Amino acid sequence: MSNTERRTVRQSDTAKGSTGAGAKPPGRRWRVLRRVAVGMVLLVGLAGVAGAAGFLAFTARIAAREPAAVKSADAIVVLTGGPSRIMDAVGLLADGRGRRLLITGVNPATTTDEMRRALPDGEHLLGCCIDLGHKALNTRGNALEAAEWTREKRFRSLVVVTSSWHMPRAMMELGRALPDVELVAYPVVTTRTQPESWWSDPGTLRLLVKEYLKFIMATVKIRPAQAVAGPGEAPRPAPSSTGAPASSAPAPLRLTPASAPTAGAALRPAEARLSP
């Protein structure tokens, strides 16, 4: 065998070894990478579809109208965050739907005298039937504060008053904190969250998406924020939507005498946003 023939045989053997059992042809590697990429795209797509379906299911739970009638209970709990909630809760108390009312999440700077000036129509109820809760910093804190108050008063049923979009998370947190207490939902509905308008308003849509994400976090018990203030501790400022600290915590209600010329415009929370 000549030298030329020997080199040809060696080159042939080398080429065969490079494509042996331990190596993959370039075409096969590309096929594997393509399958992995397609699989990742499909997983992301499925996650997006599942998230959208979950969001639609969540919005379907949001009441479109306030109930025409509500079942009476031992007491009423209202979670601060919007003026309509307080007015509706006081109205339910005046109608005899509960024997006592807890306003949970009130700013510590708010006094009973300020509440009296802010609620002229319910002034006669403040001395006998309304309690102010100052410790709650967010929805979880509302539930813990309401649970402590409910056990102290030995109530067995509560009417829960909060915004319609906030109601699913509020009822879940209260149900965990008070598993043996009957909860009756009274959702407060605004024009922004009515079915014919919420999906077309970018601000409301963002609000509902954020609340949906918070609902998911609460479902799996992810709690990044402190729930209640310690003794003598004021609510900490929460970040605003721009990342800058807000002037006060979102959940607590802040009342000032100058803000209450009429009952309809009596309550001016420091922030109307949902607490973290």
Strand tally is 5
Strand order of the largest sheet: 3-2-1-4-5
Please give the largest β-sheet.
5 strands, parallel
Residues in helices, as a percent range: 40-55%
Helix segment tally:
8
The low-confidence runs, each spanning 5 or more residues with pLDDT under 50, are 236-276
Instruction: Work out the radius of gyration.
Output: 29 Å
Along the chain, the helix and strand elements come as HHEHEHHEHEHEH
- Structural category is alpha/beta
Ends apart, CA distance between termini: 84 Å
Query: What percentage of the residues does DSSP assign to strands (E)?
Result: 5-15%
Shape summary: elongated
Mean model confidence by pLDDT: 76
Please tell me about this protein's structure:
There is one protein chain. The chain has 276 residues and is an alpha/beta fold. It has helices spanning 3-18, 26-60, 83-94, 112-118, 123-129, 139-153, 167-177, 202-219, and strands at 75-79, 101-104, 130-133, 157-163, 182-188. Strands 3-2-1-4-5 form a 5-stranded parallel sheet, sandwiched between helices. Strand 1, helix 3 (83-94) and strand 2 form a beta-alpha-beta unit. Helix 6 (139-153) crosses helix 7 (167-177). The chain starts with a helix and ends in a 57-residue tail after the last helix. 33% of the residues are buried.
